[in-house]
Model the fold of this input.
Amino acid sequence: MYEKTYPSKRFNITLDFLKKHISTNETIFDLGVPNPFSKIMEANGYKVINTQGEDLDTNHSALDQEEYSVFTAFEIFEHLLNPLTVLQHVKADKILISIPLRLWFSPAYRSKTDMWDRHYHEFEDWQLDWLLEKAGYTIVDKVKFTHPVKKIGFRPFLRWFTPRYYLVYAERK
Done:
């Protein structure tokens, strides 16, 4: 297990949620390039396939060609212009998605140095629910959790009790 600090707190909650719903004998298609959490999934016995850095707004070939029974997208939908088109290409009937929630006290994230590292969407929970419903999925389980930071100030104080992340498990109808 990983210690309960950021991002480990987020990783622990996500891993527990994954273990609750997905067995290790299923193949996971994890949207995005290999990352620290995909390595955690592999270390916990999951077979994980990642994308190779292609523009996921326009290139869905990996979703169409790979063989997988579970689709995951952990903190990636906010970077896509149109996540619905991605969901329409998912072959799996089981999906786990986490997103950062839109916070009233913090603007959407926009990197000043990396044009790809931006949040085009910062969802409210109901917006992700609606997106999944529109794509043909039914939410089975969901959880919200906070993202405390070790800084002093009004916004860091609010992060101690305002949910920052939303994690959803859904199945195709």
